Amino acid sequence: MSEKNERQLRIVGFLCNWCSYGGADTAGVCRFKQPPLLRIIRIPCTGRMDPLFVVKALAQGADGVLVSGCHPKDCHYAVGNFYARRRLELVKRFLPFVGLDPRRFHYTWVSASEGQRWQEVVTEFSAVIQELGPNPGIGADTPMETAGQAASAFA
Amino acid sequence: MDTLHAHLEALFDDLELVIGWETGYEPLRPTPAFLRSREDLSRLVWNPLCAPNLSVYLPGILKDAKETGKKIGVCLKGCDSRSLGALVQEGFVERERLYVVGLPCPGTVDPEALAEARKSSAPVTHVSFRDGLLAITSRDGTEEIELERVLARRCRRCRHPNPLHADVILGDPVPPRRTEPSFSDVDAVEAMSLEERRAYWEEELSRCLRCYACRNACPLCVCRDRCLAESRTPKWTTQRDGVRDKFLFHMIHALHLAGRCTECGECERVCPVGIPVALFKEKMARIALELWDYQAGTDPAATPPLQTFDPSETGI
Ligand code: SF4
Ligand code: SF4
Which of B103, B131, B150 is the last residue of a domain? Predict the structure, then answer.
């Protein structure tokens, strides 16, 4: 962030309410230092993850997308993350075909007690994104939807 | 041809309706035909120009059909029959309400390739097909053109020319052009660098009119007028005409077809501006094959991979 008008890099994080959101909280409570790129969206379960969330975020120029939920076999709803990991793996393999860098998408599992692990996940992924720099997205000439417009769509 | 007419003629009393193809505004473009009376049967045609996949009509027709105890007859090529299989798998079609006439398919014609291969450009008055040769008649006389020269892209990679899930197969089995799944066109896109691929799709998709013909022709796009692409809440795409919104529409189609698409190629065939949109879905089909050894529509009892899970899966 040295130059003034350099766009700040942004990672969108989709975190499951029961595990990874707690894990991120634990990391915060323990005052583990983390890079400031991540913006968190809390989801009820990784089973809520529509692969389109990933594609739309990256197409619109989000620099990275991180999805994290309960470890397999530990899902609050028993099987949500089993469905999720099939969808997430599929979209991960699909991204490069449409010209989106698959390195900008990462999915993993972090439990509520793993504050340390959360710190590592965020730090490592942020380093990857910093290395990659800004994401051109798709159709960069299209004006950005403002956060308000995007959010109102789901209201 | 004659067998098809004779066969349906003999059965007609037990059928509510027969869905097949008839000559459209010109013999080069057969259109779907919905035949309700015995006399109408004479309008049926069957040749390599009968491209439309008629399974697209089945969910709607079965929903609206009165329960008369009579079946709905439908003509399906090899690829069309896989679409039927996928619809049965997902519970959109009750197989027992259909009488499926399977037609072993020599391949379908790419109309643009045919126009290029023809010497005459006069309007076509008659088409016939025998032994791999299309005989195209116009006022300039009759030209013979090898089907193999004017084949649609989807047919070059076809593994299922012989229909699955049929009640009767009319005609001799056709040797498949491919015995293994072939993804050479996907490979060609993947041979580009990431930046080239992005530019390639931006360029191709910039032509998209968002006419949604690709969606409407897709037998597995079952939401019809409740499509996410036109929904305002949630609003996945805007009314802007930039590439990004076109791209997002295609991502909706591709992702909603993940682990479901049977690679019938209809989406690409109907595109008025020639965008190879089936490639997105071919890539999806390849991923489903790699990850779950799954081929949509081949086994009516199978559960589509994204509608189930396997706790023992590792590595992903
Ligand atoms: S997405 Fe295209 S190829 Fe796949 S089932 Fe639909 S129309 Fe056929
Ligand atoms: S048929 Fe072609 S132009 Fe129409 S929406 Fe589909 S890709 Fe776009």
Answer: B150
Chain A residues in contact with B189 by the CB 8 A cut-off are 97
* Single pTM value for the model: 0.93
Q: Is position B162 within any domain?
A: no
- Domain limits at B299? 184-307
Q: Is B245 in contact with B71 (CB distance < 8 Å)?
A: no
CA angle at B109 for the pair B107 and B115, rounded to the nearest 5°: 160
8 Å CB contact between B165 and B95: yes
Q: Report chain A residues whose CB lies below 8 A from the CB of B245.
A: 139, 142
Query: Per residue in B97-106, pLDDT tens?
Result: 999 999 999 9
> Which tokens in the block code for residue B131?
């032994």
Chain B interface test: which of A50, A88, A97 (most B C-beta within 10 Å): A97
Tell me whether 0.90 is exceeded by the ipTM.
yes
Q: List B145's β-bridge partners, or say none.
A: B134
Specify the 3-state DSSP secondary structure of B263: coil
- Say if residue B105 is exposed, middle or buried (CB neighbours under 10 Å; 0-12, 13-18, 19+): buried
- Do both B146 and B260 map to the same domain? no
pLDDT at A153: 55
d(CA A139, CA B273): 19
Task: Indicate if the pLDDT at residue B231 is higher than 80.
Answer: yes
Contact B232 A153 (CB under 8 A): yes
Using alpha carbons, select from B119, B122, B112 the residue that is nearest to residue B145: B119
